[in-house]
Amino acid sequence: MLIYLVRLITNPAGALTAIHKKYGDFVQTRFFSKRLLFTSNPEHYEEIFNQEARGLLNRDSLYEAKKPMFGDGLFNSKGATWTNQRRLMQPMFTKQAIAEWHGIMLKEADKAAMRLKNDGITKVNISEELKLTIQSILIQVMFGQTKSSHSEELLMSAIDTIVKGLFPHLLTETLGKGILKRLFFLQNRRMEKAINQFVAYVDSKIDEIDPEGHDLISLMMQGRDRNGAHMSRELLRDEAVTLFLAGQDTTVNTLIWFFYLIGKNEAVHKRITSEIQSLDEDPLTPETIERLIYTKAALYETLRLYPQAIALSRDTAATITVGGKTVPLGTSVIMSLYATNRDGRWWERPNEFYPEHFLNGAVTQRHKYTFLPFGGGVHNCVGRHFAELEMMVIIATVLREIKIHVNEEIKPTVSITYKPERDVIVSITPATQAM
After folding, report:
1. CATH number at residue 252
2. Which residues are annotated as a binding site?
């Protein structure tokens, strides 16, 4: 078992798969003095989330490890702070609320599609294009400003450094309270420098905000909790950092994987293009996008094969029972989402790109926690509707104009998110050309 635990640092997806293939759904073990439970069973996830809601599990053990980056933002806060923040922010991310930002998404998606269509370039770095597009959307949504300075163009590099460094940092804390962190001394130093750069950027943007504006940060400033209190300057910064990082890296990675997968699967690409073209010249409103059923199934299939969180971690605050077995106080419970997503018991073609997994009633035949692209339980992602609308707008807008083909093989790399090992280069042709 020790070899698999060490492999978690260098190849987490492969290690999780191997652990469950050899030892089953429910695996209790130790690493140094740390108790660990690995589970890949959706029924266990449901038990864990239900007990978390009753206060029997929490995320507290990683609080200090995440605090330099996220402070008391939703990704890290606990207790009353988390509850108040969640209640304050949730109304800003309902389907109705995010419709206000649909115009920004569409405008930036149109710009990207026109660049790809009109530049006369048949080979395109789709990774770089998507990074710039998502960053432009987020800067406008969050801060009410357009992307203009050179410092903003350096942000994605800082974010790449942060997400690469966060993974070993948090994993070593989970496995053994940081005993292994000395192995990543230089990477930790680079991450700290990138965090300082990133937080300073967010701080400077907040200082420029109009408190009466309609951008997301302004709305957060205007928000009041149940006691009429507003968000402190420190919490405002922490939430802005959390939203900017999470909203950028995870969305970019998912879209890169999406275009990579359809670029290698002509039949799926053709069906998606046909569905999008069936909208004719109808504007891409949130309502018309709901008609793109197969396209959304392909997006979900991308999230199944390349989940941005390959595992979720909780710690027991009391002795609990999972799957009829006792799990002692102080155990780190690791829900192996990647292993669940590739398990042939739940998926007809577990290792293939097969959007039909999310069509024809297949969804209702599976346990509701078999697929958790946005987390689960009380700590599910508050920005889910925003991310889904943003990705669908970009996909539909781009594929109205161009077709994509990919010749290269890309593997994932170790990171806090499940990202491609390198930028993806695609071949493009106009959408009017036959595939």
Report:
1. 1.10.630.10
2. 381
